[in-house]
Each structure stands twice: as C-alpha cells, then as structure tokens.
Amino acid sequence: xxxxxxxxxxxxxPGGSLTLSCAASGxxxxxxxxxxxxxxxxxxxxxVLCITGLSGRTDYTDSVKDRFIISRDNAKNTVxxxxxxxxxxxxxxxxCAADGYYFCSSPPAPRRYDHWGQGTQVxxxx
Length: 126
Fold this sequence. Notes:
Oligomer: single chain
Low-confidence stretches: none
Largest sheet: 7 strands, mixed
Structural class: mainly beta
Shape: globular
Order of helices and strands: EEEEEEEEEEE
Mean pLDDT: 94
Strand content: over 45%
Radius of gyration: 13 Å
Number of strands: 11
C-alpha cells in the first residue's frame, strides 16, 4: 500500500519561499504521477501541479506557473514542491496525492485519487 507523507510547511512572509516534500513508502513511486493539491479555509480542494513518472509537469493553476517548481527524486522516493514569491492567497493546507496512473490526470478530480498524505499547513502572512 502506497503511503504519502508531506512535510516542510510553515509560516512565511509574502515574497518568501518554502519547499514542501512528499515522501512515499510502501511502494516505489517511479511509475506514479504525483499531484499536489491545496485547500484554503472555506474553499474546495484544488489541484496545483502534477509531475509524471518521466518528470513531465502539468500545471492546473495558472497563478503558480512562474513561481512553483515541482521535482522528483525516484531514488529517494520523494517529490518536492518549491514555492517562490509566495502570496497570502497561497495560504492553504497542501496535500500530495496519487491516483495510480503514470501520467497526470485531466481533469484532476480529487475523488479519483486513492492515496493522500495528511497535509501540511502553509501560511503566508506578514
């Protein structure tokens, strides 16, 4: 059973950076696309970015295209999300998830994903 654990969240000032990590266990993630979601208070969970098994990137949210970088290290069984130039509207709980496919799903409906981490809080505030 694939298990995912996020880490790296915290409080950061606007314009700052954070790097989140998604560590997988129980199964090698080499053949899985990994998607980062986020959920802000009072809002629905939304897909942010996805990385395929070949490290292809799919952006689901235009607002992060020039600010967030997704990468994977299959040897370490981890996927990272580097977030730069953070804005207050980036405040949310961030989750990594997998739906069992090699390529990024479209649409990335949360109900399709069988494997979720517990989430890590990111707060952007001065």
